[in-house]
Amino acid sequence: MAAAIVVVFDFDKTIIDVDSDNWVIDELGFTDLFNQLLPTMPWNSLMDRMMKELHSDGKTMEDIAEVLKRIPIHSQVISAIKAAHDLGCELRIVSDANMFFIETILKHLGLKDCFSEINTNPGSVDEQGRLRISPHHDFTQSSHGCSLCPPNMCKGLII
Q1: Is 21 annotated as a binding residue?
Q2: If I label 54, which of 79, 94, 131, 145 is the partner at 20 to 30 A Cα–Cα?
Q3: Are 116 and 90 in contact (CB under 8 A)?
Q4: Hey, is 116 helix, strand or coil?
Q5: Is the distance from CB of 126 to CB of 100 less than 8 angstroms?
Q6: Maximum CA pair distance of the chain?
Q7: Is 12 flagged in the annotation as binding?
Q8: Is 113 annotated to bind ligand?
């Protein structure tokens, strides 16, 4: 039986108080390189490149996870999510972050099981132990056709 109320959350600057991509880059000391590369490539390509740079510098998946566990979040957001879930609401996330960041943070906060669906950019670990970030919609193959959204993710199409 489906929930009578579905609540859809963004993630960055909604569930958490900051942008998770910027948080990881800043906390691990790669802000200058990020800012240098930002004008030269799409966001998802840039984040994938930054994960390559972090890995090349010896940063591990555990280092990234530890940074994510320190991310700022208002305590009332946690209790509000748990209360809505306990009341029977179906909770979902539609976010331009990435799956590794979102799942790491939600697991750390004890919120992962509150969400029935997470739509975001894929994040996976390759055979070298490097986080790879991919776009939700492969904009290199075809456009999702929305002029309001970034090329890698149309939230309207997902919803």
Answers
A1: yes
A2: 94
A3: yes
A4: strand
A5: no
A6: 50
A7: yes
A8: no
- Which residues, listed in sequence order, are joined to residue 6 by a DSSP beta bridge? 90
**Distance of alpha carbon 43 from alpha carbon 77, whole angstroms:** 27
Distance CA 54, CA 132 (A): 11
Every domain of the chain and the residues it spans: 6-158
Q: How many other β-carbons are positioned within 10 Å of the β-carbon of residue 119?
A: 17
The CATH code of domain 6-158 reads 3.40.50.1000
Burial bucket for residue 148 (CB in 10 Å: 0-12, 13-18, 19+): exposed
pLDDT of residue 139: 60
**Beta-carbon contacts of residue 56 (< 8 Å; ≥ 6 apart):** none
Express each pLDDT in 91-148 by its tens digit: 999 999 999 999 999 999 999 999 999 999 999 999 999 999 988 756 656 555 667 7
Q: What are the angstrom distances between the C-alpha of 12 and each of 17, 52, 98?
A: 7, 22, 10
Residue 17 labeled ligand binder:
no
Please give the pLDDT value at position 21.
Answer: 97
pTM: 0.90
